[in-house]
Design a protein that fits this description.
Blueprint: H1 2-27, H2 35-41, H3 67-84, E1 91-92, E2 99-100, H4 122-147, H5 152-161, H6 166-170, H7 177-181, H8 183-197, H9 200-215, H10 219-240, H11 243-258, H12 261-272, H13 276-279, H14 319-322, H15 328-336, H16 344-360, H17 368-371, H18 386-406, H19 410-433, H20 446-452, H21 455-473, H22 478-500, H23 514-520, E3 527-530, E4 547-548, E5 551-552, H24 558-569, E6 581-582, H25 590-594, E7 597-602, E8 611-617, E9 620-625, E10 632-634, E11 637-640, H26 644-652, E12 661-664, E13 676-683, E14 687-694, E15 698-705, E16 710-714, E17 717-719, E18 722-724, E19 728-733, E20 736-744, H27 747-774
Helix pairs in contact: 1-4, 1-5, 4-5, 4-8, 5-18, 8-9, 8-10, 9-11, 10-11, 11-27, 12-27, 15-18, 15-19, 16-18, 19-21, 21-22
């Protein structure tokens, strides 16, 4: 029993050590989520007086980290809300006037950590899953390194490094990026153990980890996981020459990937209909796409160019994209691995490290996917391959540390420290001698920032040298040296993590305000439109069930982007580059009225006719738009346009009356007078019901986006939805009283579901056959 308990002691210790990073903050009543940015940067929360801070004065630790509260938290909130209402989270009506939710990759509805949201309150479950990700990352890394025959101490060393590398720390609070990355060591562990044992269990774990990598919600990270997995599989094959194991692994990975079709197929449909390739793509002048060569200094001095938390970052925007830091001590041990002879694993990860940095930097090879517009790849920011760079260095550091433990050679250690020492000295000399090159940027004294932020790395480097000298000349106990190295590593990595990561009280997470209470009390459906990005930014309105004309998302409908461009510019032109933020500016426009934008939330005083001020909280004012049209209404005619551009021309034509007329290049309806009425009898995220009556046949217009999957029923009979007013919905209603229903039931979801079910069944059959054959 004691022996069994001791066997699991390192695993438990890894989990406890990673958890210890969060413990001081948890004891202080704070959790890892940047809710402070909500209270300090965005309205209406900025209008609150919170924790004795006056409105508008709430401090923000890290203004760079806003996406978790602007995007991933609200999207997951919608997903879980739909599940709890026994609905599939297919449609999101709360941003961009409506668009797919399941098709949004980052909504991650099938992520395994979502189970937490069904056993605890959402506000508590969110930070719990954030904390669990680095714990499982460390656990899986330890087990992977042990499967590579590294010692327990070396494996423990690697397990402490990976979750606290720069990449993992800067993306920690998103709930998607690191969640995808955490499965890489489990996949490699499964490959190792399967090649050793042929066990069906490891094939099953390989399938599970593969599917969860996709379901995690960040496909670019998933792509890098599978890229390294493929390379590692062939590395194992060349090591063992076991072709049947390679084939079995590839079959399982293929079936597991096919099993994610329930997410992938709707997402590919959304991507195909999105503006991503237009809105986010590489251009030759972009400095922030690849890792700028000068930013590689962050490997040894992560804050040489400043840090967003100290409001003095002056490097290429943005900080999070270029952090390659893994700690000074781990970096030195990674260099030690270069001296290990006849170790194929070291050679493999050295090659991967070099390859990763090659593709992260701009060069004739790395630019190929963008030059030739490779599908999906051309919209991926290559700097994020630093994930593979960081992972590989963490493995190499573990190998180097293992070498240090088994066969300490002072010459190798000094040769490993030397490059780091020379880099730091060179950096110091350059900074001091060429201080004239450091001009002020936005009132930041860049020279002082650079010089000051070399000091921590210098101290760690010299401390490491002292430890080696103590070992060589004073023969200090190796156990003491090892303990000191661990302490040094934990200190520098935890220091980096604490400096960058914001922690917040649970009460700071989307608190109610008078503004949100007022808007939430109004019967749906209606939309809001804001005049400033600081108001209800991103998808924050979704948490309060408020539908917004604006939105912030890497994926949004290209037709919607085109409509907003024409709406704002007043002319037919190419879609604008919104850089993910779509915020229409012309609230006093008939397109805003057509979109059912009943309330304008603004800082301004609106004197325009038809706008009545109905609420104010702090700086945030709400005006009711008396000219807003209902979400669903009848028109007298539909005019036939020659093409879609002509439809847009009509929409911005001042003489075209959207109250009584619509335009379409697909159909027409002759003008006629009639009397009609439309009432909503049910309205939720995925469907709504109407009761209509009219004395003549007429077109019903619904200002929801026309998108594959919407179905309409009139008296339980299928009615054809026709595209109208460029990108919205219309059906023809016969005279009389009718019950009308609209449901979002995309075939992409059902096709994906069938593929997933078929793949799971096929995978099960394959595993059963394998088990019977080899076990």
């Amino acid at each position: 029993m004691k022996k069994s308990s001791f066997k699991f002691a390192p695993v438990i210790l890894v989990c406890l050590m990673v958890f210890s990073f969060f413990l001081p903050k948890l004891l202080n009543g704070k959790v890892p989520i940047p809710a402070d940015s909500l209270l300090g940067l965005y309205h209406p929360w900025r209008d609150l007086s919170t924790d004795n801070y006056l409105p508008g004065k709430f401090p923000v630790k890290n203004p760079l980290i806003t996406d978790p509260v602007l995007q991933t938290y609200p999207w997951r909130y919608l997903v879980i809300s739909n599940f709890k209402n026994f609905q599939m989270p297919l449609w999101n009506p709360y941003s961009f006037s409506g668009q797919p939710l399941l098709g949004n990759i980052q909504s991650s509805p099938f992520q395994i950590f979502n189970l937490l949201f069904f056993i605890m309150p959402f506000r508590l479950a969110w930070p719990t899953q954030i904390i669990l990700v680095p714990i499982f990352t460390g656990l899986f890394m330890y087990l992977f390194l042990r499967s590579c025959m590294l010692s327990k101490l070396a494996s423990f060393f690697g397990a402490l490094i990976l979750p606290f590398t720069g990449f993992f720390m800067v993306w920690l609070t998103w709930g998607t990026v690191t969640t995808a990355a955490l499965w890489l060591p489990l996949i490699l562990l499964s490959v190792n153990n399967f090649f050793k044992s042929r066990s069906t269990l490891w094939l099953a774990l390989l399938a599970f980890a593969t599917s969860q990598t996709v379901f995690a919600g960040h496909w670019q990270t998933a792509f890098y996981v599978f890229l390294l997995t493929g390379l590692y599989l062939f590395f194992k094959f060349f090591q063992t020459s076991k072709k049947d194991l390679l084939v079995a692994s590839l079959i399982v990975i293929f079936l597991a990937l096919a099993g994610t079709a329930i997410q992938v197929v709707p997402s590919l449909e959304f991507i195909n209909n999105s503006a991503r390739n237009v809105d986010q793509s590489y251009s030759p002048g972009r400095e922030d796409w690849f890792v700028p060569l000068k930013q590689l200094v962050q490997i040894i001095a992560p804050d040489y160019f400043g840090n967003p938390t100290t409001y003095n970052y002056w490097g290429v925007w943005n900080y999070a994209e270029f952090v390659s830091y893994i700690g000074i001590a781990p970096f030195i041990f990674a260099i030690v691995s270069f001296f290990i002879k006849r170790n194929r694993l070291a050679v493999f990860f050295i090659a991967v490290t070099i390859g990763a940095i090659l593709f992260a930097l701009k060069n004739p090879i790395s630019i190929v996917p963008y030059k030739y517009n490779f599908p999906l790849l051309s919209s991926m920011q290559p700097s994020r391959i630093l994930f593979i760079f960081s992972f590989s260095l963490a493995v190499l550091a573990s190998l180097g540390f293992d070498r240090f433990l088994k066969n300490f050679k002072s010459k190798q250690m000094f040769l490993s420290v030397l490059p780091v020492l020379l880099l730091i000295i060179s950096l110091l000399v350059y900074t001091v001698l060429f201080n004239d090159n450091f001009s002020r940027v936005n009132d930041i004294n860049t020279f002082k920032v650079a010089l000051r932020n070399i000091i921590p790395s210098s101290v760690v480097t010299f401390a490491f040298i002292v430890l080696i000298l103590l070992q060589v000349f004073l023969k200090i106990s190796k156990k003491i040296i090892i303990f000191a190295i661990f302490l040094l590593t934990i200190t520098e990595l935890f220091r980096f993590g604490y400096k960058f990561t914001p922690f917040s009280k649970l009460t700071w997470i989307f608190p109610d305000t008078q503004t949100t209470k007022f808007l939430s009390s109004i019967a749906r459906p209606f939309r809001v439109i804001t005049t400033d990005r600081r108001i209800l930014n991103g998808s924050t309105s979704a948490v309060y069930k408020l539908e917004n004309v604006a939105g912030y998302d890497p994926l949004f409908l290209k037709d919607y982007g085109q409509l907003i461009t024409v709406w704002d510019s007043g002319k037919i032109t190419k879609p604008g580059s919104f850089n993910r933020f779509v915020t229409p500016q012309k609230y006093n426009h008939k397109i805003a009225n057509f979109l059912n934008a009943k309330y304008i939330v603004t800082f301004d005083t609106l004197d325009d006719q038809g706008f009545e001020k109905v609420h104010q909280e702090g700086e945030t004012k709400i005006y009711e738009n008396k000219n807003a049209l209902p979400r669903a209404f009848f028109v007298k005619e539909v005019i036939k346009a020659d093409n879609r551009d002509k439809e847009l021309e009509k929409l911005i034509d001042k003489n075209f009356d959207l109250t009584n007329s619509a335009v379409s290049s697909e159909f027409s309806f002759d003008r006629q007078e009639f009397t009609g009425k439309v009432d909503f009898t049910k309205y939720d995220d995925q469907s709504f019901k109407l009761k209509v009556s009219l004395d003549k046949t007429a077109p019903l217009i619904v200002s929801n986006p026309y998108y594959p999957g919407w179905e309409a029923l009139v008296d339980n009979q299928i009615a054809q939805i026709k595209r109208v007013n460029y990108m919205f919905q219309s059906i023809i209603i016969p005279e009389g009283e009718h019950g009308v229903e609209f449901h979002f039931r995309p075939s992409s979801f059902y096709n994906g579901l069938l593929i997933s079910l078929g793949s799971v069944i096929s995978l099960t059959i394959f595993l059963v056959i394998w088990k019977r054959k080899y076990q």
